[in-house]
Amino acid sequence: MRHKIDEDIQELIVRYRPIIAFRVRKALGAQNTDCEDLVSEILSQVLEKIQTGEFRGESSLGTFVYTITSRRIVDYIREKTKVMKYAPEPAPFPDPQETLEVAEMSDRVKKALSRLKPKYREVLYLYYYQELSRDEVAERLGVSTRKVSELVNYALKLIRKELKS
Amino acid sequence: MSKCKFEDLIDGYLLNKLSEGDREAFEEHYFNCSSCFEQLQERDVIIRTIKNNPALLEEKEEVRSSALAGLRKELASFLTVRQLAFAGVTALLVMVIIFTVIPRHQVPAPNFFLTDEETVRGSSITLISPVIDMGQVPSSFEWKKLGDNIEYQISISNGELLWKATTRENRITLPDEVKAKMVPGQKYSWQVKAFGPDGSLIAVSSRVQFKISAD
After folding, report:
1. A25 lies in a domain?
2. Quick check: A50 and A5 in contact, CB under 8 A?
3. What is the chain B residue with the closest CA to A20?
4. Which of B172, A57, B67 is nearest to B163 (CA)?
5. Does residue B54 have a cis peptide bond before it, meaning omega lies within 30 degrees of 0?
6. Is 90 exceeded by the pLDDT of residue B33?
């Protein structure tokens, strides 16, 4: 019995740690050194609440973890603003180097980007770098919005292929 | 891989374009949907890589002057570069022909037929009014002036000569007695001839018809 619970806990940590970490980094910025501590703290809170029976399965486990994560993030920001005048403003798009795995992935993405045909590069540049809407990209390139979606999706497919290889 | 309806929110979420409601709904969703979370992680690295390495995508000319690029692209979609060059050269040749070759072939002065036997070579007179159908009997006739010291002879006919007069002006008023002879519904024609100081014929207009409407 004890063994079974340990296994469940292991599974839960493996499944939710990356999701919690993603949510925390998005809120606080990847460079924030408090991220790791916060993630661990949230995980132990989740485990504790499950063990004390506070999670009764009224919502899905995912939603339960999401709620605890969001609450903790709000608390963290509130604590910080007490000390500092402004909430920590995360850098919007930090260079993807936080883990070795992510850095490796980013290298593959770079490789894939440089191999793309100009029409795909152009559409990715306008859509993701300049953050134009699909409609605006369509107008710029003189093609339909549908075509823009096709180009973006196909370019992503090509990049994904490089990531999987 | 079946498509999840939340997939479309991934870009908006990462680019911070979602409303607060959508953002929270999507956050709760990816805590529950491993397929969306997997894609989210992947897209996050792709977008951050693009944001940090725009040079990999920049197509200097094409992206910057994309208004021009768009036009060029539209053209290019049905014309290849070679065809475009060919069209350019052809257009240039046509211009050369129009502006240099044709003017050398000056049209000779037209021949005017005065009567069946008599023709004259010279310039033409442009008639100004009346040249179309008139609502009432015209009270005056006007044509383009040719020069000084020229005498014009005007003739009006409706099959046979109705009136003939000369003047040194480039217009003439129709006398009342001639006006009285002209009736609505009838077609008339008029012509002007120009004579030089020595009395020689120097120009003739074409014979222009006009009709006085019947009402």
Report:
1. yes
2. no
3. B31
4. B172
5. no
6. yes
